[in-house]
Prior knowledge:
The protein is mainly β. The protein contains one helix and six strands. β2 and β3 form a beta hairpin.
Amino acid sequence: MEERVFTVEELATFDGKNGRPAYIAHSGKVYDVSGSGMWEEGEHEEEHSAGRDLTDDTDFAPHNDSVLMPFPVVGVLK
Length: 78
């Protein structure tokens, strides 16, 4: 199966609002965080929104990027 390639504009449509899936990008991979209680309505800790590339944001997070390991990778960010 070929990996789906997301543009920044396409990723923005997966914001977790109004029943849409919540996708985030990190280090070129796009993750589906829809099933996480930490991402309800596409918001995480009132600081991060789904539909965005959060690579730079993890520099300031109280955790490392290994927290993304349980989430399915649904594609790559172009």
